[in-house]
Amino acid sequence: MNNQQLVTRRENAIGKGAPLFYEEPLHIVRGEGAYLFDADGKRYIDMYNNVPCVGHANPNIARAMYTQLQKLNVHSRYLHEDILEYAEQIADLHTASIESVVFSCSGTEANEVAMTMARIATGGSAFICTNAAYHGNSDQVGKLTYVPLENNKRKNIYSIPYPQTFRPIVAGLSEEELSLKYLQVLEDTITQIQADGIGFAGILFCPIFANEGLPEIPAGFMQAATQMVRDAGGLVIIDEVQSGFCRTGRWWGYEKVGVEPDIVTMGKPMGNGLPLSATASGKEIVEQYRSRTRYFNTFASSPLQAVTGMAVLKEIKDRNILNQVGQIGEYLRDGLEGYLQRIDYIGDIRSQGLFVGIDWVISKNDNTPNREGAVRVVNLMKTKGFLMSNAGEHGNVIKIRPPLVFQKEHADNFLEAFDSVMGEHFV
Prior knowledge:
Aspartate Aminotransferase, domain 2; 2 domains; seven-stranded mixed β-sheet; about 15% strand; globular
Protein backbone atom coordinates (compact mmCIF):
# COMPACT_ATOMS: atom_id res chain seq x y z
CA MET A 1 0.00 0.00 0.00
CA ASN A 2 1.51 3.33 -1.06
CA ASN A 3 1.48 6.55 0.97
CA GLN A 4 -1.50 8.09 -0.83
CA GLN A 5 -3.55 4.96 -0.20
CA LEU A 6 -2.55 5.10 3.46
CA VAL A 7 -3.55 8.77 3.65
CA THR A 8 -6.98 7.97 2.20
CA ARG A 9 -7.39 5.06 4.57
CA ARG A 10 -6.31 7.27 7.46
CA GLU A 11 -8.82 9.97 6.60
CA ASN A 12 -11.60 7.39 6.52
CA ALA A 13 -10.49 5.71 9.74
CA ILE A 14 -9.68 8.69 11.98
CA GLY A 15 -11.05 11.68 10.06
CA LYS A 16 -9.68 14.35 7.77
CA GLY A 17 -7.68 17.11 9.43
CA ALA A 18 -5.59 14.91 11.73
CA PRO A 19 -2.16 16.50 11.28
CA LEU A 20 0.73 14.89 9.45
CA PHE A 21 4.35 15.95 9.13
CA TYR A 22 5.92 16.80 5.77
CA GLU A 23 4.67 17.53 2.28
CA GLU A 24 5.15 13.86 1.48
CA PRO A 25 3.94 12.01 4.60
CA LEU A 26 6.33 9.52 6.13
CA HIS A 27 5.40 5.89 6.76
CA ILE A 28 7.52 4.91 9.77
CA VAL A 29 7.71 1.25 10.77
CA ARG A 30 10.63 0.96 13.19
CA GLY A 31 12.89 2.93 15.54
CA GLU A 32 16.26 2.28 17.15
CA GLY A 33 18.11 4.74 19.38
CA ALA A 34 18.24 8.06 17.52
CA TYR A 35 17.06 6.47 14.25
CA LEU A 36 13.72 5.92 12.56
CA PHE A 37 13.13 3.65 9.54
CA ASP A 38 10.42 3.96 6.90
CA ALA A 39 8.52 1.21 5.09
CA ASP A 40 11.13 1.15 2.32
CA GLY A 41 13.96 0.64 4.79
CA LYS A 42 15.35 4.18 4.56
CA ARG A 43 17.01 5.31 7.76
CA TYR A 44 16.43 8.76 9.24
CA ILE A 45 18.10 10.52 12.14
CA ASP A 46 15.34 11.70 14.44
CA MET A 47 15.86 15.39 15.21
CA TYR A 48 12.42 16.03 16.66
CA ASN A 49 11.01 13.47 19.08
CA ASN A 50 11.57 14.05 22.77
CA VAL A 51 9.13 11.32 23.85
CA PRO A 52 11.68 8.48 23.36
CA CYS A 53 14.22 10.52 25.33
CA VAL A 54 16.48 7.52 26.05
CA GLY A 55 16.10 6.16 22.54
CA HIS A 56 13.55 4.50 20.30
CA ALA A 57 12.94 0.85 21.22
CA ASN A 58 15.27 1.10 24.21
CA PRO A 59 15.74 -2.55 25.25
CA ASN A 60 16.07 -1.77 28.98
CA ILE A 61 12.80 0.16 29.00
CA ALA A 62 11.04 -2.53 26.96
CA ARG A 63 12.35 -5.21 29.34
CA ALA A 64 11.12 -3.33 32.40
CA MET A 65 7.66 -2.90 30.86
CA TYR A 66 7.46 -6.53 29.74
CA THR A 67 8.53 -7.88 33.13
CA GLN A 68 5.97 -5.78 34.99
CA LEU A 69 3.16 -6.64 32.58
CA GLN A 70 3.88 -10.32 33.22
CA LYS A 71 3.47 -9.67 36.94
CA LEU A 72 0.81 -7.01 37.59
CA ASN A 73 -0.82 -3.88 36.27
CA VAL A 74 -3.75 -2.32 38.11
CA HIS A 75 -4.97 1.19 38.85
CA SER A 76 -3.86 3.24 41.82
CA ARG A 77 -6.54 2.29 44.35
CA TYR A 78 -4.29 -0.36 45.78
CA LEU A 79 -1.09 -0.04 47.76
CA HIS A 80 2.02 -0.59 45.68
CA GLU A 81 5.58 0.26 46.73
CA ASP A 82 6.85 1.00 43.21
CA ILE A 83 4.30 3.79 42.76
CA LEU A 84 5.43 5.40 46.00
CA GLU A 85 9.10 4.93 45.14
CA TYR A 86 8.65 6.58 41.77
CA ALA A 87 6.73 9.53 43.22
CA GLU A 88 9.50 10.03 45.77
CA GLN A 89 12.18 9.85 43.10
CA ILE A 90 10.40 12.47 40.99
CA ALA A 91 9.92 14.83 43.94
CA ASP A 92 13.57 14.42 44.99
CA LEU A 93 14.73 15.61 41.55
CA HIS A 94 13.06 18.99 42.13
CA THR A 95 13.61 21.91 44.46
CA ALA A 96 12.82 21.21 48.13
CA SER A 97 9.40 22.89 47.97
CA ILE A 98 8.17 20.14 45.62
CA GLU A 99 7.04 17.29 47.88
CA SER A 100 4.06 15.42 46.44
CA VAL A 101 3.03 14.17 43.00
CA VAL A 102 -0.24 13.62 41.11
CA PHE A 103 0.22 11.27 38.16
CA SER A 104 -1.71 11.40 34.90
CA CYS A 105 -1.21 10.27 31.29
CA SER A 106 -0.44 13.38 29.21
CA GLY A 107 0.95 16.88 29.43
CA THR A 108 -2.55 18.23 28.80
CA GLU A 109 -3.90 16.37 31.84
CA ALA A 110 -0.94 17.43 33.98
CA ASN A 111 -1.52 21.10 33.15
CA GLU A 112 -5.25 20.78 33.74
CA VAL A 113 -4.56 19.30 37.18
CA ALA A 114 -2.12 22.16 37.85
CA MET A 115 -4.66 24.83 36.91
CA THR A 116 -7.34 23.29 39.11
CA MET A 117 -4.78 22.91 41.89
CA ALA A 118 -3.87 26.62 41.69
CA ARG A 119 -7.50 27.71 41.64
CA ILE A 120 -8.24 25.71 44.77
CA ALA A 121 -5.13 26.97 46.57
CA THR A 122 -5.65 30.66 45.73
CA GLY A 123 -9.41 30.96 45.40
CA GLY A 124 -8.84 32.81 42.12
CA SER A 125 -9.82 31.83 38.59
CA ALA A 126 -7.72 33.92 36.19
CA PHE A 127 -4.44 32.79 34.65
CA ILE A 128 -1.79 34.60 32.67
CA CYS A 129 0.00 32.94 29.74
CA THR A 130 1.97 34.23 26.77
CA ASN A 131 0.41 35.11 23.43
CA ALA A 132 2.07 32.17 21.65
CA ALA A 133 1.75 29.49 24.32
CA TYR A 134 0.76 25.87 23.92
CA HIS A 135 0.12 23.69 26.97
CA GLY A 136 -2.33 21.05 25.72
CA ASN A 137 -5.59 20.26 24.00
CA SER A 138 -8.38 19.96 26.57
CA ASP A 139 -11.17 22.51 26.84
CA GLN A 140 -9.59 24.18 29.89
CA VAL A 141 -5.92 24.01 28.89
CA GLY A 142 -6.65 24.71 25.23
CA LYS A 143 -7.85 28.20 26.20
CA LEU A 144 -4.16 29.05 26.83
CA THR A 145 -3.22 28.42 23.19
CA TYR A 146 -2.35 31.50 21.14
CA VAL A 147 -4.38 34.13 22.98
CA PRO A 148 -3.85 37.24 20.78
CA LEU A 149 -2.55 40.43 22.38
CA GLU A 150 -5.10 42.57 20.55
CA ASN A 151 -7.84 40.68 22.39
CA ASN A 152 -6.00 39.22 25.35
CA LYS A 153 -8.94 37.90 27.37
CA ARG A 154 -10.36 34.43 26.86
CA LYS A 155 -12.61 32.99 29.59
CA ASN A 156 -10.42 33.85 32.58
CA ILE A 157 -7.22 33.58 30.53
CA TYR A 158 -5.12 36.70 29.91
CA SER A 159 -2.13 36.84 27.60
CA ILE A 160 1.08 38.86 27.68
CA PRO A 161 3.79 39.06 25.00
CA TYR A 162 6.45 36.42 25.55
CA PRO A 163 9.78 37.93 26.62
CA GLN A 164 12.41 38.11 23.88
CA THR A 165 15.34 40.17 22.68
CA PHE A 166 15.20 39.30 18.95
CA ARG A 167 11.80 40.84 18.10
CA PRO A 168 11.14 42.85 21.26
CA ILE A 169 8.00 44.81 22.04
CA VAL A 170 10.08 47.98 21.86
CA ALA A 171 13.19 48.19 19.66
CA GLY A 172 16.46 49.83 20.59
CA LEU A 173 16.33 49.30 24.37
CA SER A 174 19.00 47.83 26.63
CA GLU A 175 18.23 44.42 28.12
CA GLU A 176 17.49 46.02 31.47
CA GLU A 177 15.10 48.53 29.90
CA LEU A 178 13.45 45.82 27.83
CA SER A 179 12.97 43.64 30.89
CA LEU A 180 11.22 46.54 32.62
CA LYS A 181 8.91 47.01 29.61
CA TYR A 182 7.81 43.37 29.73
CA LEU A 183 7.38 43.57 33.49
CA GLN A 184 5.17 46.62 33.07
CA VAL A 185 2.90 44.67 30.73
CA LEU A 186 2.70 41.87 33.29
CA GLU A 187 1.90 44.32 36.07
CA ASP A 188 -0.79 45.99 33.95
CA THR A 189 -2.33 42.59 33.19
CA ILE A 190 -2.46 41.64 36.88
CA THR A 191 -4.08 45.02 37.58
CA GLN A 192 -6.61 44.32 34.80
CA ILE A 193 -7.47 40.95 36.35
CA GLN A 194 -7.99 42.57 39.74
CA ALA A 195 -10.17 45.30 38.18
CA ASP A 196 -12.27 42.62 36.47
CA GLY A 197 -12.89 41.11 39.91
CA ILE A 198 -12.13 37.55 38.86
CA GLY A 199 -9.39 36.65 41.31
CA PHE A 200 -5.83 35.83 40.29
CA ALA A 201 -4.82 32.15 40.28
CA GLY A 202 -1.37 32.42 38.71
CA ILE A 203 0.80 32.23 35.63
CA LEU A 204 1.60 29.17 33.51
CA PHE A 205 4.63 29.07 31.22
CA CYS A 206 7.33 26.86 29.74
CA PRO A 207 10.60 28.07 31.29
CA ILE A 208 12.39 28.15 27.92
CA PHE A 209 9.26 29.23 25.98
CA ALA A 210 9.67 26.27 23.63
CA ASN A 211 6.49 26.76 21.62
CA GLU A 212 7.28 30.45 21.31
CA GLY A 213 10.53 29.59 19.51
CA LEU A 214 13.17 29.41 22.30
CA PRO A 215 13.60 33.19 22.61
CA GLU A 216 16.52 34.80 24.38
CA ILE A 217 14.94 36.24 27.53
CA PRO A 218 15.91 39.73 28.76
CA ALA A 219 18.13 39.43 31.80
CA GLY A 220 16.30 39.72 35.11
CA PHE A 221 12.81 39.30 33.70
CA MET A 222 12.07 35.77 34.89
CA GLN A 223 13.04 36.34 38.51
CA ALA A 224 11.18 39.64 38.75
CA ALA A 225 8.10 38.28 36.94
CA THR A 226 7.68 35.26 39.20
CA GLN A 227 8.07 37.45 42.29
CA MET A 228 5.47 39.89 40.93
CA VAL A 229 3.00 37.01 40.43
CA ARG A 230 3.51 35.75 43.97
CA ASP A 231 3.23 39.24 45.44
CA ALA A 232 -0.17 39.52 43.73
CA GLY A 233 -1.34 36.25 45.33
CA GLY A 234 -0.88 34.00 42.30
CA LEU A 235 1.04 30.75 41.95
CA VAL A 236 3.81 30.04 39.46
CA ILE A 237 3.11 26.94 37.34
CA ILE A 238 6.07 25.82 35.25
CA ASP A 239 5.41 23.46 32.35
CA GLU A 240 8.39 21.13 31.94
CA VAL A 241 6.76 18.84 29.36
CA GLN A 242 9.24 19.92 26.68
CA SER A 243 12.07 21.36 28.79
CA GLY A 244 12.33 18.76 31.55
CA PHE A 245 14.30 15.56 32.04
CA CYS A 246 17.71 17.00 31.08
CA ARG A 247 16.64 18.56 27.78
CA THR A 248 18.35 21.88 28.60
CA GLY A 249 21.50 20.39 30.11
CA ARG A 250 19.93 20.69 33.56
CA TRP A 251 17.31 18.38 34.99
CA TRP A 252 14.70 21.12 34.69
CA GLY A 253 14.31 24.15 32.51
CA TYR A 254 13.46 26.29 35.55
CA GLU A 255 16.97 25.63 36.87
CA LYS A 256 18.39 26.96 33.60
CA VAL A 257 16.48 30.25 33.84
CA GLY A 258 16.91 30.67 37.60
CA VAL A 259 13.37 30.43 38.97
CA GLU A 260 11.45 27.95 41.10
CA PRO A 261 7.89 26.67 40.64
CA ASP A 262 5.01 26.54 43.07
CA ILE A 263 3.59 23.81 40.83
CA VAL A 264 5.51 21.94 38.13
CA THR A 265 4.16 19.75 35.34
CA MET A 266 5.95 17.00 33.43
CA GLY A 267 5.09 14.67 30.57
CA LYS A 268 6.37 13.41 27.21
CA PRO A 269 9.83 11.97 28.08
CA MET A 270 8.77 10.43 31.39
CA GLY A 271 7.68 7.08 29.99
CA ASN A 272 9.81 6.90 26.82
CA GLY A 273 6.62 6.23 24.87
CA LEU A 274 4.33 4.95 27.62
CA PRO A 275 1.68 7.58 28.42
CA LEU A 276 2.87 9.13 31.68
CA SER A 277 2.79 12.64 33.12
CA ALA A 278 2.78 14.32 36.50
CA THR A 279 1.89 17.45 38.42
CA ALA A 280 3.95 18.14 41.53
CA SER A 281 3.82 20.74 44.28
CA GLY A 282 4.12 21.21 48.02
CA LYS A 283 2.31 18.72 50.23
CA GLU A 284 -0.28 21.25 51.43
CA ILE A 285 -1.29 22.33 47.92
CA VAL A 286 -1.53 18.72 46.70
CA GLU A 287 -3.59 17.64 49.72
CA GLN A 288 -5.98 20.57 49.20
CA TYR A 289 -6.42 19.41 45.62
CA ARG A 290 -6.92 15.78 46.65
CA SER A 291 -9.55 16.66 49.24
CA ARG A 292 -11.53 18.94 46.92
CA THR A 293 -11.50 16.87 43.73
CA ARG A 294 -11.02 13.23 44.67
CA TYR A 295 -9.02 13.02 41.42
CA PHE A 296 -8.72 9.56 39.91
CA ASN A 297 -7.31 8.34 36.60
CA THR A 298 -7.74 4.70 35.60
CA PHE A 299 -4.39 4.42 33.87
CA ALA A 300 -2.31 6.87 35.90
CA SER A 301 -0.21 5.96 38.89
CA SER A 302 -0.07 2.31 37.90
CA PRO A 303 2.70 -0.22 38.65
CA LEU A 304 3.49 -0.29 34.91
CA GLN A 305 3.92 3.48 34.78
CA ALA A 306 6.03 3.48 37.93
CA VAL A 307 8.42 0.76 36.80
CA THR A 308 8.76 2.28 33.35
CA GLY A 309 9.33 5.76 34.77
CA MET A 310 12.04 4.50 37.11
CA ALA A 311 13.71 2.63 34.25
CA VAL A 312 13.87 5.91 32.29
CA LEU A 313 15.46 7.70 35.24
CA LYS A 314 17.98 4.88 35.62
CA GLU A 315 18.91 5.09 31.93
CA ILE A 316 19.43 8.85 32.18
CA LYS A 317 21.73 8.40 35.16
CA ASP A 318 23.56 5.26 33.99
CA ARG A 319 24.31 6.74 30.57
CA ASN A 320 25.38 10.10 32.00
CA ILE A 321 22.87 11.78 29.72
CA LEU A 322 22.72 14.96 31.78
CA ASN A 323 26.34 15.84 31.01
CA GLN A 324 26.19 14.56 27.45
CA VAL A 325 23.24 16.78 26.56
CA GLY A 326 25.15 19.91 27.46
CA GLN A 327 28.24 18.84 25.53
CA ILE A 328 26.46 17.61 22.39
CA GLY A 329 24.07 20.54 22.42
CA GLU A 330 26.96 23.00 22.54
CA TYR A 331 28.73 21.11 19.76
CA LEU A 332 25.63 21.24 17.55
CA ARG A 333 25.06 24.93 18.28
CA ASP A 334 28.70 25.75 17.50
CA GLY A 335 28.42 23.88 14.21
CA LEU A 336 25.41 25.97 13.20
CA GLU A 337 26.73 29.36 14.29
CA GLY A 338 28.75 29.90 11.09
CA TYR A 339 25.56 29.91 9.02
CA LEU A 340 24.38 33.12 10.69
CA GLN A 341 26.84 35.06 8.53
CA ARG A 342 26.71 32.84 5.47
CA ILE A 343 22.95 32.47 4.98
CA ASP A 344 20.86 35.61 4.62
CA TYR A 345 17.70 33.70 5.58
CA ILE A 346 18.94 32.77 9.05
CA GLY A 347 18.06 35.62 11.36
CA ASP A 348 19.00 33.98 14.65
CA ILE A 349 20.06 30.68 16.20
CA ARG A 350 18.93 29.95 19.75
CA SER A 351 19.43 26.90 21.91
CA GLN A 352 18.96 25.38 25.33
CA GLY A 353 20.98 22.19 25.70
CA LEU A 354 19.83 19.71 23.08
CA PHE A 355 17.03 21.97 21.86
CA VAL A 356 17.82 24.32 18.96
CA GLY A 357 15.71 26.87 17.11
CA ILE A 358 16.78 28.39 13.78
CA ASP A 359 14.83 31.58 13.11
CA TRP A 360 14.23 31.62 9.33
CA VAL A 361 13.59 35.08 7.86
CA ILE A 362 12.92 36.79 4.54
CA SER A 363 16.19 38.67 4.91
CA LYS A 364 18.48 39.83 7.69
CA ASN A 365 17.65 43.40 6.66
CA ASP A 366 14.37 43.32 8.53
CA ASN A 367 14.19 39.82 10.09
CA THR A 368 10.63 39.32 8.82
CA PRO A 369 9.54 35.77 9.77
CA ASN A 370 9.50 33.35 6.84
CA ARG A 371 7.35 30.34 7.63
CA GLU A 372 7.31 29.06 4.05
CA GLY A 373 11.10 29.04 3.97
CA ALA A 374 11.31 27.16 7.28
CA VAL A 375 8.87 24.52 6.03
CA ARG A 376 10.92 24.17 2.85
CA VAL A 377 14.11 23.57 4.83
CA VAL A 378 12.36 20.95 6.98
CA ASN A 379 11.17 19.07 3.89
CA LEU A 380 14.54 19.32 2.14
CA MET A 381 16.29 17.93 5.21
CA LYS A 382 13.79 15.07 5.26
CA THR A 383 14.98 14.04 1.79
CA LYS A 384 18.51 13.93 3.23
CA GLY A 385 17.37 11.62 6.04
CA PHE A 386 16.82 14.09 8.91
CA LEU A 387 13.48 14.68 10.59
CA MET A 388 12.67 18.10 12.06
CA SER A 389 9.70 20.45 12.25
CA ASN A 390 8.86 24.14 12.53
CA ALA A 391 7.41 26.07 15.46
CA GLY A 392 7.33 29.50 17.05
CA GLU A 393 4.82 32.33 17.07
CA HIS A 394 5.09 32.68 13.28
CA GLY A 395 5.88 29.04 12.46
CA ASN A 396 9.25 30.16 11.09
CA VAL A 397 11.54 28.61 13.69
CA ILE A 398 13.14 25.35 12.56
CA LYS A 399 12.76 23.11 15.60
CA ILE A 400 15.55 20.66 16.43
CA ARG A 401 14.80 18.49 19.46
CA PRO A 402 16.26 14.98 19.11
CA PRO A 403 16.12 12.12 21.59
CA LEU A 404 18.68 12.63 24.35
CA VAL A 405 20.76 9.71 23.07
CA PHE A 406 21.73 11.90 20.11
CA GLN A 407 25.53 11.76 19.77
CA LYS A 408 28.40 13.71 18.16
CA GLU A 409 28.37 11.42 15.12
CA HIS A 410 24.68 12.22 14.58
CA ALA A 411 25.43 15.93 14.89
CA ASP A 412 28.25 15.61 12.34
CA ASN A 413 25.95 13.81 9.91
CA PHE A 414 23.29 16.47 10.38
CA LEU A 415 25.71 19.37 9.88
CA GLU A 416 27.03 17.79 6.69
CA ALA A 417 23.50 17.40 5.30
CA PHE A 418 22.50 20.89 6.43
CA ASP A 419 25.54 22.35 4.70
CA SER A 420 24.58 20.49 1.54
CA VAL A 421 21.00 21.83 1.61
CA MET A 422 22.19 25.37 2.28
CA GLY A 423 24.71 25.19 -0.55
CA GLU A 424 22.28 23.68 -3.05
CA HIS A 425 19.28 25.92 -2.34
CA PHE A 426 20.08 29.02 -0.28
CA VAL A 427 23.53 30.40 -1.11
